[in-house]
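Lecture notes, unit on protein representations.

Consider one protein chain, 235 amino acids long.
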Amino acid sequence: MSRSVLVTGGNRGIGRAVAETFRDEGDRVAITYRTEDPGIPGVLAVRCDVTDSEQVDAAFDEVEARHGAVEVLVANAGVTADNLLADMSDEQFRHVYETNVAGTFYVARRAGTAPMPDGGRIIAISSAIAPYGAYGQANYASSKAGQIGLVKSLMRELAPRGITVNAVLPGPVQTDMYDELSPEAKAGHLRSIPLGRCGQPEEIAGVVAFLASSKAAFINGVALPVDGGALGHLI
């Protein structure tokens, strides 16, 4: 049966792959984007900055009017602003937290307090570095760890309504964000992955689709690493 699915930050990378996967399964899919409509065929695109709760509410209003109440929410919108502790500005730290943590909270709050039906799904895209940390990413790693705490708390609140809340923790994935890394950084990532390669956005999307399916109805509050074995042993 076709469901109403919303993917935040669905204009590129993992978010786009997730949106296209749900679309190909026959769902009614909407994405949010912040700067440029990606024009994905068969997908409703809504401009929204997830750090602004009023824009989040307006985006949900539009999706609900076009596709019905959101039944699957994928909180994917996220940013990085890497720097060493001594050089990281207040703005770099604040912007990452406002997007990755507050943005996830705003969309989850709207979905969880709207008429999301029994069997609804909320899935946050965190990161495999969340429990481990990363050099020069104090803001990003801690914000992604914050998402996991948020997921585990919301799971307890929403479970009585039959709504599951989970997190997916991707390792290095071949996206445009990854392409911006230095050759040295990429080589280091590859050395850390037992499978010897980066993941593909479609591989992350497949895990998200599974968590949203009826087959995963008894999976709740998990932080699932999808990283080729790089960091999952630490969780």
